[in-house]
Amino acid sequence: MDGSFILAHVPDYLSGAWVTLRFGLYGVICAMVLGLLCCLLRYFRIPVLQRIAGGYIELARNTPLLVQLFFLYAGLPRVGIRFSAEACAVIGLTFLGGAYMAEAFRSGLESVDRAQVEAGECIGLTRGQNIRYVIFPQALATAAPALFANVIFLIKETSVFSVLAMMDLMNVADTLRTSGGRTVEVLFMLVVAYLLILLPVSALATLVERRLRYAGFGNQHSV
Amino acid sequence: MSETILEVRDIHKSFDGPGVLRGVSLEIREGEVVVIVGPSGCGKSTLLRCINGLETIDSGEIRLRGEVISGRTRDLHLVRQKIGMVFQSYDLFPHMKVMDNLQLGPVRALGRPKAEVEREALEMLERVGLRDKAQALPRTLSGGQKQRVALVRAMMMHPEILLLDEITAALDPEMVSEVLNVVIDLASGGMTMAIVTHEMRFAEAVADRVLFLEEGVILEEGSPEQFFHEPKTERARRFLQSFTYAARRNRDGIQPKNNPGD
User: Fold this and answer.
1) Do B81 and A127 touch (CB under 8 A)?
2) CA B202 to CA B94: how far, in whole Å?
């Protein structure tokens, strides 16, 4: 491996990593908001809207992100709707991630014991208060591993952004490889770059999950 | 004569299949402690759950201080603020410290100032012997301690009436009395209660009136002295007998084995 080649191209990878991380995070945050919204529409069984949320979740989970991005970037302009590449990236990632986040939130909400819901009702909380103070905190604890898995999944999915001609990590590496031909060095740096971004996220996930376990959710009937 | 707090008139309730409650009526006056006993599956728990709207009733009427509370859906939480309920499984909020469990209802549902509620919560914890557990998480408490906290949590709402649904059924035997003593203390303080229990000696100790429920109807009603010692119906007599052991093991003729020297 050529060390001087690697050193010379660190700045390229840094700027690629910045694009990956920035748009990945925008997507993750928007996906969480959308996912939570969809999940609540279904949880509260809001007429019509819960159906739309359900249909959207199936659509988003059963089509590839690449196809979704093509649709946004190449399909919509044909009917006069045009977004920038960056907007397409965030919308696409939100569209895909929202469905996965909704399912993660749902698994958390469903895991909360029915008796907890009733206990909240019995002290006279409104439905909203019950969700906010009693149900949701416990649901979040259960959903945390799935939510973190989705975050990591979505950040990895940003590698598809290269089809939008965005200079993310994947595209930086691809450009270097096709112009210079140093395939081994280029791909080695690509792998390292993704690891440097995602390993801290994994570590954070482990830390949070362990803390939640220590806090002792669920299983309160033992002792 | 004190005022009627709760009035249940001819309520019916069925899930899929035969009726669980088949025309139950009862009245509970202020400060009165009514104990409901009966074989499992007789509808005792369902009756309590119908009273605070955890189950809807098929027909009949329930009134709290004269006001109809059955059939409501929109402002059910306002009704429940006046009816305390404690379950067999404690159901403390596991993610909150004891103090937060106690404050949630009064502060969020009733909008009372936090400092005042905290002071009251500490007094109540003192009364049940758990003042030092205010900052503990529920999972660190024993079953008996959890159930005492659950009782305090219900009392913090200053309910008109307290419904207790087999609150000692999940406890180890040595923890039963620490919980029931709290209930007796509350009863002595004038708390109106409807209690479902299998602890017959406790029922006799705490009740002003006993209802015997079987197959969804009240078969018998009376003072604890009368019900436990001279039940009027054969069904009640048989039910009460199931808490004693008629047969005794015959130990005659059993010799100790380990003393061949005698």
Assistant:
1) no
2) 29
Q: In A, what residues contact B, Cβ < 8 A?
A: 113, 115-116, 118-127, 129, 133-134, 137-138, 141, 215-221, 223
| Token duo for residue A197 | 């971004």
pLDDT tens by residue, A13-65: 999 999 999 999 999 999 999 999 999 999 888 999 999 999 999 999 999 99
Mutate to test the interface with A, among B46, B86, B108 (most CBs of A within 10 A): B108
**Residue from A121, A129, A134, A220 to probe the interface with B (highest B Cβ count within 10 Å):** A220
Query: What are the C-alpha distances in Å from B249 to residues B29, B240, B245?
Result: 46, 21, 10
| Partner-chain contact A223 B137, CB within 8 Å | no
Average pLDDT over residues A8-16: 89
Residue B75: closest C-alpha in chain A: A126
Please answer yes or no on whether A220 and B108 come within 8 Å at the CB atom.
no
ipTM: 0.87
Q: Domain residue spans in chain B?
A: 4-241
Cα A196 to Cα A202: distance, rounded to the nearest angstrom: 11
Pick among 3.30.1330.60, 3.40.720.10, 3.40.50.300, 3.10.20.600: CATH of B4-241: 3.40.50.300
The predicted-structure confidence for A149-172, as pLDDT tens digits, reads as follows 999 999 999 998 888 888 889 989
Domain boundaries defined on chain A: 3-214
Model confidence, pTM: 0.83
- Concatenating the DSSP letter of every residue in A83-142 gives --HHHHHHHHHHHHHHHHHHHHHHHHHHHS-HHHHHHHHHTT--HHHIIIIIIHHHHHHH
- Candidates 3.20.20.140, 2.30.40.10, 3.90.550.10, 1.10.3720.10; CATH matching A3-214: 1.10.3720.10
